[in-house]
Structure formats: structure tokens, C-alpha cells
Amino acid sequence: MTRGDADAGRAWQLLVRFFFAQRGAQRGLGGGVPLDLSPAQCHVLHLIEPGEPMPMNRLADTLGCDPSNVTGLVDRLESRGLVRRCASPGDRRVRVLALTPAGTRLRSQTLKQMTGRHLPLARLTADEQRTLIRILERLVDDEW
Amino acid sequence: MTRGDADAGRAWQLLVRFFFAQRGAQRGLGGGVPLDLSPAQCHVLHLIEPGEPMPMNRLADTLGCDPSNVTGLVDRLESRGLVRRCASPGDRRVRVLALTPAGTRLRSQTLKQMTGRHLPLARLTADEQRTLIRILERLVDDEW
DNA sequence: TATTGTTATACTCTATAACTATA
DNA sequence: TATAGTTATAGAGTATAACAATA
After folding, report:
1. Measured between alpha carbons, how far is residue B48 from residues A53, A68, B30, B53 in Å?
2. pLDDT given at position B2
3. Which chain B positions have a beta carbon within 8 Å of A131's beta carbon?
4. Which has the least CB within 10 A, A90, B4, B131, B137?
5. Is-contact A51 A15, C-beta < 8 A?
6. Any idea which of A65-74, A86-95, B3-12 has the lowest mean pLDDT?
7. A interface mutation test: which of B19, B46, B61 has the most A CBs within 10 A?
8. Handedness of CA A73, A77, A82, A88 (dihedral sign)
9. How far does the CA of B21 sit from the C1' of D12, in Å?
10. Which of B116, B120, B117, B97 is nearest to B46 (CA)?
């Protein structure tokens, strides 16, 4: 294994580890008010930009899961009044998802919760934050 | 909201998004042989260093989940012969987990699968990989 | 024929609460 | 009393397969 492979592997391990650690913090192991959102529900809220509805099939793609899961996921968010299923103008098979005002509010609450002053992400320098964003944007926009 | 808060929020969104994207790739949406490991099982395999047994309570801490989950998680890994529960020399309440040879092998297979030449992580420059690791190590070692 | 979303099913993950053994 | 791990339970997440509506 070359040096580069080992570094890529280490980076992957750390990225996954971050996810599990922040998940614990979001519950309450790390303090803060519990918002009663599962990681998947919270992620969906952030994948839908306020004012920019998202088709359900694209949501399944970005989540990296089977479309059948999205049905139940959206059912639960919709029953709490956080998102709405709307008709798509062009294609009557497609349902697009829009955040409700309540969904938009909860979305920004989760953001505050994960970036509080005492939390790891907020303790990075401004330079580190920007560097991290730049690298992650390449990772996330790339082909999987 | 200050600029720094917004950057921290953006970084968090991207980190979570990476997790969901790579999860899809690991299954087969992105090619490769399916190894039949859930994200949590795969992560446990990587939290146990070969030759360095890990107590179950520390595993629950790092996973950011309740200790009761670890029981079932380890049950499934143990029934596949990937990890072993061992006695702890000092404290008879504690069980430490060790990778079996099969577990060690599968661990490196998952690593190869996520860092393949055509995948996003491998396409970062060597500098980017090292920078990413340095920042993530600060995030992950920090207090939650 | 192909695609979008849903339903049915089985299994994994997860938190909560109550319990046993050990410290 | 406190801690480590387990069990029981209920609910959420997930893939697979089969289906209806639409393209």
C-alpha cells in the first residue's frame, strides 16, 4: 500500500468517526436541547434548501439509499409538519419536497446546535474552516 | 450569525453529507464487491486496532450511542467470527474486544473499497489528504 | 418499455428501562 | 452505591421485491 492510499484510508476513518461522534453530541451526550430528529431526518432537512423544492428521486440519490426508504422518511417529516409533498409541474409521476416554515425554523436550530461556541467545529480557526469546506466540496460533488 | 458560524455550519452539513454519500458507495451504488457490513459494524471494525483490544464501554462512548446497542452489534460481529469478547485482566465486569484474523482481513478490504483509484478520496492531492487528516484529528479528539 | 413512488417484508440500529454481576 | 454489560421492548432506518401510475 502506497503512502497516498494509507492517507486516504485514514481520512475516511476520521470522516466516519466524526459522523458517529457528532451524532452522540446532537442527542444530548454533549449537551443542548433534544430536537427529536434522527440523523437521517436531520440530513433531509438540510438537503432541501428553503425555497428550493427537491424531487424525491434526487433525495434518494443524495442519501445513497433505496427510493423506498424515502417514502417512510418523508411520511414522518410530513406528519410533523416539517416538509410538504408537492406536485411537479412537468412530470406527474414526480413529487417535489418543500420545507414548511416550521421545517425551516428547525433546520436552523440544528445548525446552531452543532456549531455552538464550545463544540469542536467552532473551535477551528477561520482558515481551517474554509480549507475544510473547500476539500469537502470536492469530495461531495464528485462521482461515487 | 457571524461569518465563522456560517462556515462551521456549512462544514458540518458537508461532513454529514459525505457520510451518507460514501455509505451508498460502500453498498454497490458506486461499484465494488458488497462486504455485507452495516455502517455501524464497519465502523466498529475500524475502531478496534489490530492487536489493541478495546473495552466495550469505550466503544459505546466513541460510537456516541447507548451501551445496550453495543451488545447486539458485537453479537452479530462475533457470530460471523470477526471479533472476540475477551476477559479484562483488571476488572471482571469489563469485556474487551479483539479483532480475529478474519476481522482484520475484512477491515483492510473495506479500506481498499473506500479509497479505490476512481473514488473521491483517492483523487485528492497528497497535500489535501494530509490537511484533511490534520483538521479531522482535531475535530475527533476534541470534547463533545 | 422505462421511471417514479408506494407497499409489504425482514433485518439492523437505536434509546429507554429494568436487571445481574462486580467494584 | 456506582459501574459494566445484558435483556426486553418499541420505534426508526434499510434493502429487496412486487406493484400502480405515468412517461
Report:
1. 42, 34, 26, 6
2. 63
3. 131, 135
4. A90
5. no
6. B3-12
7. B19
8. positive
9. 20
10. B97
> Closest partner residue to B135 among A12, A119, A132, by Cβ?
A132
The mean pLDDT value for B22-38 works out to 85
E strand residue ranges, chain B: 54-55, 83-87, 95-99
With distances taken from each CA to the C1' atom of nucleotide D17, the closest residue turns out to be A68
* Residue in chain A lying closest to B1 (CA): A112
Three-state DSSP class for A94? coil
Give, in degrees to the nearest 5, the angle at Cα A84 between A78 and A87: 135
pLDDT of residue A125: 96
Distance A100 CA to D1 C1' (A): 49
Which residue in the block uniquely carries the three cell numbers 457470530?
B79
The separation, in Å, between residue B71 CA and nucleotide C10 C1' comes to 21
Amino acid residing at B120: P
Predicted TM-score (pTM) of the model is 0.96
CA–CA separation, A84 vs A93, rounded Å? 16
Residue among A18, A98, A96 nearest A55 (CA): A96
CA closest to C1' of C12 belongs to: B38
Distances (CA, A) of A54 to A49, A96, A143, B33: 8, 5, 20, 31
